[in-house]
Amino acid sequence: MILYRMKMSYSTQPWFDKQIYILVDIDDGSSPSYRKSATWKNILTREKINAFFDIMEPISDLESIAIIREIRLEQIGI
């Protein structure tokens, strides 16, 4: 599973957040000149958002493993 977060270059925007997401769907649109719209699911709250694909960046494998491990430990109460 590839995890994503918003690029820090967008941190000054009012819609920026530091949450971790997984990609649900990409709408390629009818023209290659348009930005790709995507649906993302927050891994903690399971809420879905719509945001352009290019404002997100993948998280490294090692960091993803650590995040998933931490979430699972919280789920079992450790």
Written account of the structure:
- The chain has 78 residues and is of the alpha+beta class.
- It has one domain.
- Helix content is 19%, strand content 31%.
- The strands form two sheets. The chain has a three-stranded antiparallel β-sheet, with no helix packed on it.
- A hairpin with a 5-residue loop joins strand 3 (37-42) and strand 4 (48-52).
Indicate the topology:
Elements: E1 4-6, E2 21-27, E3 37-42, E4 48-52, E5 56-58, H1 61-75
Antiparallel strand pairs: 1-5, 2-3, 3-4
List keywords for this structure.
single chain, 78 residues, alpha+beta, two-stranded antiparallel sheet, 1 helix, 5 strands, globular
Q: Globular, elongated, flat, extended or rod-shaped: what is the shape?
A: globular
Low-confidence residue ranges: none
The radius of gyration computed from the alpha-carbon positions, rounded to a whole number of angstroms, is 14 Å
Overall structural class, as computed from helix and strand content, comes to: alpha+beta
Give a summary of the structure in a few sentences:
With 78 residues, this protein is of the alpha+beta class. It contains one helix and five strands; from the N terminus they run E-E-E-E-E-H. It has one helix at 61-75, and strands spanning 4-6, 21-27, 37-42, 48-52, 56-58.
